[in-house]
Design a protein that fits this description.
Helix content of chain A: 40-55%
CATH architecture of chain A: 3-Layer(aba) Sandwich
CATH superfamily of the largest domain in chain B: Thiamin diphosphate (ThDP)-binding fold, Pyr/PP domains
CATH topology of chain A: Rossmann fold
CATH class of chain A: Alpha Beta
Number of strands of chain B: 14
Oligomer: heterodimer
Strand content of chain B: 15-25%
CATH class of the largest domain in chain B: Alpha Beta
Amino acid sequence: MNLDKRDLLQMYKMMLLIRRFEEQCVEFYKNGEIRGSLHPCIGQEATAVGACYALRKDDYLTCTYRGHGQALDKGLDPKEAMAELLGRSTGCSKGKGGSMHFTDPDVGLLGENAIVGAGAPIAVGAALSAQLDGIDRVSITFFGDGAVNQGAFAEALNLAAVWNAPIIFFCENNLYSEMTPIADMVNIEQLADRAAGFGIPAVTVDGYDPVALYEATLAAVDRARSGGGPTFIEAMTYRLVGHMIGDTEPYRTQEEVAEWRARDPIHAFPQRLVDEFGVSQAEIEAAQAEVEAQMAEVVRFALDSPWPSADEIAQDIFA
Amino acid sequence: MRELTYAQALREAITEEMDRNPNIILLGEDIGVYGGVFKVTEGLLARYGPERVRETPISEAGFVGAAVGLAMTGKHPMPELMFADFAWVAADQIFNQAAKMRYMSGGRVKVPMVIRTQQGGGRGNAAQHSQSLETIFTHIPGLKVVLPATPYDAKGLLKSAFREENPIVFVEHKLLYATRGPVPEEEYTIPLGQAEIKRAGDDVTLVSLSRTVLHALEAAEEMAQEGVSVEAIDLRCTVPMDLETILESVRKTNRLVVAHESHRRLGIGAEIAALVQEHAFDHLDAPIERVGAMDVPIPYSQPLESQVLPGVDHILEAIRRVIV
């Protein structure tokens, strides 16, 4: 493993930041500060952090409406992200996109996407762009288990395969396709099995193990950078909250949620850093304090930010 | 001046722009070795190679989506939809992605791309290969929509489309590819959003677009024999739309007919009629007439299809109604 203590602490800090960010979003949603759709990634922070830690800043990324984690980890400023959620002019999209459309081309973030599966062909295009430029940039697209049944997604896999595009298809299999078990919606055991039909190698990883996720992604990234083409990664994960705020969750048992909650990486990972990697409790606590301070700043910035002016309504339609 | 076909004029525009801008990438079905089903891209694979003239699987959602990704990362793709009817297959990528990406990002990204396609009936291609869809492209904010009627316009407008940093839907007509017309040797472009008065007149304003312009000019000629002076305007673009040229003409003629091959219901004619009554109601001496395809799927059989699609006779009838 080529991660040292500093890397691991950094990964932990990022996971915690995402968790705190999402918890803050839920709070803001409940008190009416955030409107519309909100799909927290609580429970799925490890996939975002493990995968993104294997990327460079100039790599391209598309993700889904549950993509706050990936967006932040790719480098989106959490202050701009929270301001966007509050609909403020300082938001990353000046308040025009909201929760499901975080975009920041400066860090390679080509957008979350509110249409299931739609980010995949866009990421293939970005990968092709890198290939045509002859540089070793890669593209990664995150999607949920539900996306594997979308036509555009299948088309993206095929295009990536025939173009040998430098891309990683990263499936966050959280077992539920919105509010329906994915097991009822496909006739295969592992979603990674889909990749073989397109001639794309695939691997299934524990989505609650940041280190394993990093290593699997790094292998895929190395392969893509060196001209080896696409890889499909399926991370077995779980969201510890509903699909969206207000989800009554009749489709799963409290026992099942409790089982996964017992493995929640936000608690398990720092413990593992102490047990296995010589990280001290003081270092963990310092990381936690740092995140708390950062979040206080994020919230203050967002709440203090001005609303967009009405002049903005008809701006940014055409370049 | 030399004459070119519509297809040749398009090819010349693509070639000149590809020479000028190395970021232009062509994607589409059968556009390479075969040269496209209407031969517009013939010879381009040999000239630019498979990286820039990229044959794709039959996979419209996939390659239009890839074009969005290319456009967002510095390329200028030209995905070709073999028939406009196939836009439905790629509808999410056109309407939800390409059209909205810039707005949703607060202007952080650009999506420079030219979606080339062709539409229209008259060849017996039946309901899934004969639709005229400019109304649909026009309705969703975020796309510019161009419909050239002549070889001259095809070249000049396509070159302008490539100079834009926006998603453009460039809609050709399948029965125009073999038409011939003057195209100068020297470089020129035609700005998007400028209608053209194809024939000046005083009695009736006749606005049309795409292949219907040819019908409109024929009708105008016939009316001239009867002593009625028709001002024929080729709209050329529906987004941006040159309303001013239409209003100026209506203020002079006080009568308006709009003709297009897309369905009459909620068509460009309906939009223009609404805009003209909003802006020039006092200048109208007769109800505005709309000519368009009947609101039925385009039938296969020749006598049926020719009744469903608007022709010269339909335009003549409409003109006669407004000059009474």
